[in-house]
Amino acid sequence: MKQLNDHIRAQELFSAYIDNQVAADEKNFIERHLAICDRDCRAVLAATRSMIKATKSLPAMRAPKSFVLPKSMERQQARSIFEWYPVMRLATSIAIVAFIVVFAADALTPRTINLSNNIPNSANAPQLMNSVAVPVAPTTEANAAAPAQAPIAASLPQTQAKLLPTPTLTNNSAAGSAMSIAPAITETNITTADAITASQPIALMAATPEATIEPAPESAPAGGAIAARQADQTNEPAKPIETETGLSPLRLIEIILGALAIGLIVITLIVRQRARNS
Amino acid sequence: MRLDRDALSTMDEVALIQSARKGNIDSFNSLVLVYQHQVYNLAYRIMGSEAPASDATQEAFVSAYKNLKSFRGGSFKSWLLRIVTNACYDELRRLKRRPAVSLDELTNNEENDTEFDVPSTEDGPELLVQRRELADLIQSGIETLPEEQRIALVLSDVQGLSYEEIADMTNANLGTVKSRLSRGRARLREYLQAHGELLPETYRLESEQA
Q1: Residue B43: is its pLDDT beyond 90?
Q2: Does B203 sit within 8 Å of A43, measured CB to CB?
Q3: Which partner from A17, A189, A245, B77 sits 20 to 30 angstroms from B182, CA to CA?
Q4: Smallest Cα distance from A255 to chain B, Å
């Protein structure tokens, strides 16, 4: 029964039709049907419009009491995770800076020079014998070698001893005396070189008080024990120098700071994410 | 200074919301004072009586304060209305599940703070309708609707929201909103006509005379 279906279908569309929410074909259908409808579709449409109008005119209710929240409900914002983010950011920055500083200090520290000192040391002695000039190694080594030379010469049980000025234990004067000693040394034979190397530990001991420079303890390959003693008197840890791949305390600090910085970065990112999501 | 909707500019509102997000409850309460009437009105039209409407309103504001961080801008009023709509919906579902209270008891509530009685069907059709009586009847009729149709009708015809806004607020698609609104209005019309209002004769007469 097409006609009954039309009535039903039209009435179903009245709500959207009133709100202008029907498609063009639906609108055409409704208006065509209303024109020829012999039942109460027009009445239903009118009643629906009237009802909507009345509903829109319902009096607005006012709140019967105040719905403000009590002060006790106020959140403690300081403890919120949102406030942690600036703190974490600062801590991370400090950790990163500390790591960079320590790393830079480690990288710039001229410890690598010591390694080169180790090898040619035994060769230096003959070199010294052949030339008046100080060895090719940096001046620091010269300063270390120079005072070493002076007492060494002093220990030589030869007439050279009288040529030696008293080791004044200053680098400059020692260098000067070393210069004068050098010719004397050159006069001796190779055996002196052995004596030199053998007596170097003793020389180093004598040179220690003023030789606060780093290379001093490191120029003795056999001076492991001496190096340890030097470590007590100098600021630099001498022992690990002998092992090139060892874990120095400084390295350890670097690793710890680096791990700390990375850890803090991760935590800070998590806190920031939580703060944004909350 | 009495705060109402007109007195609060958009900039003031944004500032209040920012302050409230940091936990300042006084700022939030300023917003409460502005919007509590609209929120209560919506809750009342959905729930039908003062007590459940007040509960839903209070619950909505508490929830809004606690979840301010999830407000991402846009209309703060719409955000509030959505919260109270959800609160009402949850309460309606909850009441439906409770075996002790039947839906009939709810709709024939005595708590209506109105002066006039609902006209009974025995009175017969009346041509002239007191506005107040019709308003009460409409409210009673709304309460006979299932919760989805009820909410769609109230949001549309009481609150004045568009289909799109209703769809957004109720997490439904446009077709569903259209369908719920259509059925809700049809059912309300039949209720009113059964209680002596909006009689077809009235309109048939008018349309024939036109």
Answers
A1: yes
A2: yes
A3: B77
A4: 39
Asked if pLDDT for residue B28 goes beyond 70, the answer is yes
Do A40 and B41 count as a contact with CB atoms less than 8 A apart? no
Give the confidence band of A93 by pLDDT, cuts at 50, 70, 90: confident
How far is A31 from A101, CA to CA, in rounded Å? 84
Q: How many residues in total does chain A contain?
A: 278
Cα A103 vs. chain centroid, distance in angstroms?
Answer: 9
DSSP A40-102: SHHHHHHHHHHHHHHHHTSPPPPPSS--PPPGGG---GGGSGGGHHHHHHHHHHHHHHHHHHH
Residue A100 class from Cβ within 10 Å (0-12 exposed, 13-18 middle, 19+ buried)?
middle
Q: What is the dihedral of CA A76, A79, A83, A87, to 10 degrees?
A: 150
Q: Which two tokens stand for residue B110?
A: 């005595």
B48: left (phi over 0), alpha (psi -120 to 50) or beta: left
Q: Return the higher-pLDDT residue of A261 and B44.
A: B44
- How far is residue B116's CA from residue B133's CA, in Å, rounded to a whole number? 6
3-class state of residue B129 by DSSP: coil
The verdict on A35 touching B (C-beta cutoff 8 Å) is: no
Q: Residue B28 corresponds to which tokens in the numbers above?
A: 């939030």
Kindly state whether A118 is in contact with chain B, defined as any CB-CB distance less than 8 angstroms: no
Query: Which residue bears the tokens 């500390």?
Result: A98
Say whether residue B134 is in contact with chain A using an 8 A CB cutoff. yes
- Express each pLDDT in B108-127 by its tens digit: 544 444 444 444 444 444 54
Tokens of B24: 């300042």
Instruction: Report the distance separating Cα A28 and Cα A26, nearest Å.
Output: 5
Judge whether B183 and A16 are in contact, CB under 8 Å: no
pTM of the model: 0.56
- Single out the residue of A241, A246, A248, A250 nearest to residue A119, CA to CA: A241
Are the CB atoms for B155 and B123 separated by under 8 Å?
no
How far apart CA A167 and CA B171 sit, in angstroms, is 96
ipTM: 0.81
Comparing CB atoms, the residue among A54, A75, A77 nearest residue B138 is A54
